[in-house]
Amino acid sequence: MKQSAEPPAFNQAKLWRESSLDDAEFLRAKYRTHSFPPHEHAEYGIGFIEQGSQAFTLNRSTRLIMPAGSVCVINPGELHEGSPATEAGWDYRMMYVSSASLQVALSDSLDDLGGVIVHFPDSVIHDDDVLSQLRAAHLCSESRGPSALEKSTRLTVALKELTRRYAQKRHQRPPSTVLPGAVKRAREYIDACISSNPSLGEIAEVAGMSPYHFLRAFKRYVGMAPHAYLIQRRVEIARHLLVKGRPIRSIAIALGYSDQAHLSREFRRFYGASPSKVVGNY
Questions:
Q1: What are 197-244's pLDDT values in tens digits?
Q2: Could you say which of 150, 170, 190 is where a domain stops?
Q3: Same domain, 83 and 100
Q4: Which residues sit opposite 30 in a β-bridge?
Q5: By C-alpha distance, which of 210, 206, 217, 230 is closest to 179?
Q6: Which Gene3D superfamilies match (predicted)?
Q7: 255 and 217 in a common domain
Q8: Residues 6 or more apart from 213 whose CB is under 8 A from it?
Q9: How far is CA 259 from the centre of its chain?
Q10: Between β-strands 44-58 and 62-67, what pairing exists: parallel, antiparallel or unpaired?
Q11: For residues 282 and 277, what is the distance between their CA atoms, to the nearest angstrom?
Q12: Residue 1 located in a structural domain
């Protein structure tokens, strides 16, 4: 019997986008040795553990273990990191959903949406009904058979049930996500200069602080150093462009990387596999 010439990779991931679902992005992954560095997302990260268990740290303080069957919800701007809870690692599925989509799911009419912020106070949820609906929506998004109507219906129903049971409506952001003005200006400047490699001096000047004091303030309130924030924002943008079909080399140039290999190395740190592997099948 002919054997495979190459053993399966320890860490495998696949990313895709479904344009009929308000540009929601989906991830399916098997991680055995991969650990995520501290990072945040502009969207809601909603997912569930299929096998194994994941160790999860939120906002540099709260450490949780998510076994198989757990639903995970990460609010926009929440700093988090993850790693295998055991040597067996974990298999999971995630979806990245915009604030606008969650607002629609939570509201019974468009008139109810003004100024509402959807917030999930619990990052780990144990609810078989919600798990079943999220899983059905995720599997449906990956299949070529279902219509766009079926895909959007399944996702809307799943998000509606999740938000109905576990979300809070707020009109102000949680205090932990509100940045001082100087740090907010600096972060916005980094976002605006994502491809131009701004210097520490430039960013500190925007914040109106000395470079040393700016470094301390940024890390205190954002949870990572400015260069780490720049990297994770670039990787997040790269993910958006990859699932839209843009060539990796073109993305690397647009984001200010010296070459494609540099982007691939940083992308692998966050997703456990290179961009070319992640947008293909495993």
A1: 899 999 999 999 999 999 999 999 999 999 999 999 999 999 999 999
A2: 170
A3: yes
A4: 12, 91
A5: 217
A6: Homeodomain-like (1.10.10.60), Jelly Rolls (2.60.120.10)
A7: yes
A8: 204
A9: 24
A10: antiparallel
A11: 8
A12: no
In a domain, 5, yes or no: no
Query: The tokens of 97 are what?
Result: 């959903």
Find the CATH number of the domain harbouring 162.
2.60.120.280
Kindly give the residue spans of alpha helices, DSSP state H, lying in the chain.
99-106, 128-142, 148-166, 181-192, 200-207, 211-222, 226-243, 248-254, 260-271, 275-278
Q: Select from 142, 170, 198 the last residue of a domain.
A: 170
137 and 16 in one domain?
yes
Provide the token pair at 138. Answer: 């995720």
Which pLDDT belongs to residue 59?
85
Residue 51 identity (one-letter amino acid):
Q
- Which pTM was predicted? 0.87
Instruction: Tokens for 234, please give them.
Output: 């670039």
Q: Tell me the CATH number at 238.
A: 1.10.10.60
Structural domain that includes position 72: 11-170
243 and 164, same structural domain? no
| Same domain membership, residue 205 and residue 125 | no
Mind listing the pLDDT tens digit for each residue in 145-189? Answer: 899 999 999 999 999 999 999 998 776 665 555 578 999 999 999
Q: What is the mean pLDDT of the chain?
A: 88
Tokens for 70, please give them. Answer: 């757990």
Q: Are the beta carbons of 22 and 37 closer than 8 angstroms?
A: no
Model confidence over 254-280: pLDDT tens digits?
999 988 999 999 999 999 999 988 986
Q: With pLDDT > 90 as the criterion, what percentage of the chain qualifies?
A: 72
Distance CA 232, CA 229 (A): 5
